Amino acid sequence: MLADESQSMGPYRQDLSNGLVSLCEGLRAEPMIAAKLRLAVLGFSDDVQVRLAVADMRTETSLPRVSIRGLTNYEAVFDDLLDRIPSDVQWLRGEGYKVHRPVVFFLSDGQPTDGGAWRQPHARLTDRATTPAAPNIVACGIGDAQAHTMVEVATREEFAFVAKPGTDIGRAIAEFFHALTASLVASGQALNSGSPQLVVNRPDQFTMAIDEVG
Predict the structure, then answer these.
(1) Ramachandran region of residue 115, left (φ > 0), alpha (ψ -120 to 50) or beta?
(2) Closest by alpha carbon to 159, among 115, 195, 113, 203?
(3) pLDDT tens for each residue of 156-178
(4) Helix extents (H) in 49-166
(5) Strands 39-44 and 48-55, sheet pairing
(6) Burial of 113 (0-12, 13-18, 19+ CB in 10 A)
(7) What pTM was computed for the model?
(8) What are phi and psi of 9, to 5 degrees?
């Protein structure tokens, strides 16, 4: 989970914190599902900071803390993930786990402040020949985030969403976390059933970003 912590998110800091708490509590309430999942929470602005390291929510007692700061640097995000994801996958395998393809849920309220510099690390991250542990990326835009950017960030068109025009941003954040929790629970159930697949639920008050590009 990657959460935008740039200055423009300042008015919604509590909504973001509440959403993260609801996500953690939602997974704790599903211990059979949580057994199959490992959650990390990262905050990004000028750089990426760990809010929750890779965690088993059945035993994790701490909650992620949000810190509002800086600009909306997408390049920093994908540079960080290029190192972090392969390292985390290697560590999990070293612990004896079978690791399925990672998934990144990306929430941003703005356009990248680094111009197009983010596209190169993003391309390397999502190229499975270059990065065998390349993640699926689900991108959700609120506020000033534009639909075409979310389509570029997401690894599939159907994984890109934007809040409907006029949607209250605080409500959009809550709906994002509700859908994220439901997606993780459904994906965990698929793992338990022996038919692993990523399930992505569209948040209420969001539309598919590809439908807004024109």
Answers:
(1) left
(2) 203
(3) 999 999 999 999 999 999 999 99
(4) 74-94, 119-126, 147-153
(5) antiparallel
(6) middle
(7) 0.96
(8) -85, -5
What does the DSSP 8-state code read for residue 167? Answer: -
The C-alpha atoms of residue 74 and residue 57 are separated, in whole angstroms, by: 28
Q: Which residues partner with 161 through β-bridges?
A: 140, 208
Closest CA to 162 of 172, 152, 177, 174: 172
The pLDDT score that the predictor gives to residue 96 is: 95
- Rounded Cα–Cα distance for residues 127 and 135 (Å): 9
Q: Is the pLDDT of residue 73 over 70?
A: yes
Name which of 81, 192, 94, 91 is nearest 139 in CA terms: 81
| pLDDT above 90 coverage of the chain, percent | 91
The rounded mean pLDDT for the chain is: 95
Cβ neighbours of 4 (radius 10 Å): 25
Helix, strand, or coil (residue 154): coil
Q: Residue 56 is inside which H or E element, if any?
A: none
Q: Tell me if 107 sits within 8 A of 101, measured CB to CB.
A: no
Give pLDDT, residue 5: 97
Structure tokens at 46: 């000028």
DSSP secondary structure letter of residue 135: P
Which two structure tokens, joined as six digits, stand for 40?
Answer: 């990390």
Which residue from 45, 176, 209 is spatially nearest to 112, judged by alpha carbons?
45
**Contact of 99 with 141, CB cutoff 8 Å:** no
